[in-house]
Design brief:
Length: 296
């Protein structure tokens, strides 16, 4: 497989997201879903709504999210909508909580490592194309979270999230935490689910990772550790595997004094394994050309 193009800018600005999207040379058509993370109540690191306004306006897109499968302020439709309001999403955008009716659709994964089905919010069927905008950072369970995490856990309905975290054992969030999968099985289940969403929208999906607020914790943590590294920039690609690989490589190559702390989280959770598993599913590559467009 030829190298994927990954565009990189050190300019960290909401308008830069639009410029990097334009570099991809893709025209997302029809009804466009823009996948974000709504941010757990109490989290200080998530990307706030105003950051997304230029790209949402440019694509005339709809912000999409799904409910969680753990206790907090986003695990039911009622609470999640209150969180959207608290964080200001409704002030700027049309927002679609894709499993708000407690319904999901099933995407088949015939070549999945550990799961053969992906349960996603049912409203996903209403969209023709997708832009996945991810806050790249650490993650307590995955080691790191970027495009692949958004594609899998992010698009999963509440039941789908439980199914991934348990590597196919259960869709019931009430018994999930007594049946968490072995680590590599969990990472492989995430890769499986990521492949399902990517392949469904093949040719009409694009990815942007924003490397700011680089905490070892996810935006799903109500009490998250403060960032341990300086902001790095924004990256965009049509290949989610290459994009996450490029972000992780920028961390590894950094001389920031917080790098080792960040990588300790990645290594503790065997985070690189999701990239290895994703490559085998044939929806992307970890071979890439990093194209620095900072000064263009």
């Amino acid at each position: 497989m030829e190298k994927a193009k990954v565009y990189f800018s050190r300019n960290i600005d909401s308008k830069e997201v639009v410029r990097l999207y334009q570099k991809l040379g893709i025209e997302l058509k029809g009804k466009v879903a823009i996948k974000v993370h709504s941010g757990e109540v109490g989290n200080q690191n998530f990307l706030h709504p105003i950051y997304f306004k230029p790209i949402v306006d440019y694509l005339k897109g709809t912000i999409v999210e799904c409910n969680t499968a753990y206790s907090g302020e986003r695990n039911t439709t009622e609470k999640h909508k209150k969180t959207f309001e608290k964080h200001g999403w409704y002030e700027f955008f049309d927002v679609d909580l894709m499993d708000e009716d407690d319904n999901d659709i099933v995407l088949d994964i015939p070549n999945g490592h550990v799961i053969k089905k992906d349960y996603v919010g049912s409203h996903l069927a209403n969209y023709d194309s997708v832009l996945v905008v991810s806050h790249f950072k650490g993650h307590p369970m995955g080691g790191f979270g970027g495009a692949l995490k958004q594609l899998s856990i992010g698009f999963g309905s509440s039941r789908g999230k439980a199914y991934i975290h348990s590597a196919g054992f259960t869709k019931d969030q009430n018994i999930l935490w007594d049946n968490i999968a072995k680590q590599d099985d969990f990472l492989e289940a995430m890769a499986d689910a990521a492949s399902a969403v990517t392949k469904r929208f093949k040719g009409q999906i694009a990815f942007i990772n924003v490397m700011v607020n680089l905490s070892v914790d996810c935006d799903c943590c109500s009490v998250a550790e403060d960032p341990c590294m300086k902001d790095i920039g924004i990256l965009a690609s049509l290949d989610p595997i290459a994009l996450d690989q490029a972000c992780l490589d920028l961390i590894k190559q950094s001389k920031d004094r917080g790098r080792d702390h960040f990588l300790a989280r990645v290594n503790r959770q065997h985070g690189d394994h999701i990239l290895e598993a994703a490559i085998k599913l044939d929806f992307g590559t970890n071979q890439y050309e990093l194209i620095d467009v900072t000064n263009e």
